[in-house]
Specification:
Elements (H helix, E strand, L loop, with lengths): L22 E2 L9 E2 L15 H32 L6 H4 L7 H9 L4 H15 L8 H19 L7 H23 L7 H29 L7 H7 L1
Antiparallel strand pairs: 1-2
Helix pairs in contact: 1-4, 3-4, 3-5, 3-7, 4-5, 5-6, 6-7
Length: 235
């Protein structure tokens, strides 16, 4: 009878403190018991905007600051066209002055992005376009951005279906109406309900739905591939 052959037991060097160690048994390569390299920890997802996201938000704020100013120029002609309901012209245009909030949120998908973009647009109107509202417009922009971003925040920035954009328009309309009702005394007027209804329709169409359509149109060009909206389309 042949004498049994024995193989000395291999020892594994101790791993550095905190390192993840695994072993593998591969008889073809002779790696039984050999320590595997430590796996680096997975990087946590950054919650705040990155540099290129911040640049995009700034660009959107500047561009829509001028867009908002253009809609201000339509205000007086619209008042003339509406005759006895001229005082509702601002409510008809209300959604057009909030669209950058949900648009920026749709593209970047991080907390506070819509509020920041809307406030930057208001800053452009005040500083560069001499808005008659003055510095108070910054507060208005913040309120508008907050109202438009709220439904996205409630979904934790994970849902971007059409219903969320409709909810964004409704939320923006209600929040800004409440703010302006206190500011201008709308609640004491006979047609306050009509004013609210007009503003809700305006914000759903010109703010919520328009933001979704604009975002999709820009994404199709490939210009937003480096952002969250582009990653979703590629996935």
């Amino acid at each position: 009878m042949a004498e049994p052959r024995t193989t000395p037991q291999q020892t594994t060097p101790s791993a550095a403190p905190g390192a993840a160690v695994g072993t593998t048994d591969d008889p073809t390569t002779g790696t039984a018991g050999r320590a595997l390299p430590a796996t680096p920890p997975r990087a946590a997802r950054r919650r705040g905007p990155t540099l290129h996201e911040t640049v995009l938000i700034a660009v959107l704020g500047v561009v829509f600051g001028f867009v908002y100013w253009a809609f201000v120029q339509l205000w007086a002609p619209l008042q003339l066209a509406m005759g006895p309901l001229a005082d509702l012209a601002a409510n008809v245009l209300a959604g057009a002055w909030i669209v950058v909030g949900p648009l920026a949120t749709y593209i970047v998908r991080k907390p506070g992005v819509g509020i920041l973009a809307e406030t930057l647009a208001a800053l452009v109107e005040v500083v560069f376009l001499a808005s008659p509202a003055g510095p108070l417009l910054l507060v208005v922009g913040l309120v508008q951005g907050l109202g438009a971003e709220l439904p996205f925040a409630l979904t934790r920035y994970r849902r971007f279906g059409w219903w969320v954009f409709v909810a964004s328009g409704v939320s923006a309309a209600l929040v800004t109406f409440a703010f302006n009702a206190v500011r201008f005394g709308w609640l004491g007027q006979d047609y306050a309900s009509l004013r609210l209804g007009v503003q809700v329709v305006s914000c759903v169409v010109l703010c919520g739905l328009a933001a979704r359509l604009l975002g999709d149109a820009l994404a199709r060009t490939g210009a937003l591939d480096a952002f969250a909206i582009g990653a979703e389309r590629r996935g």
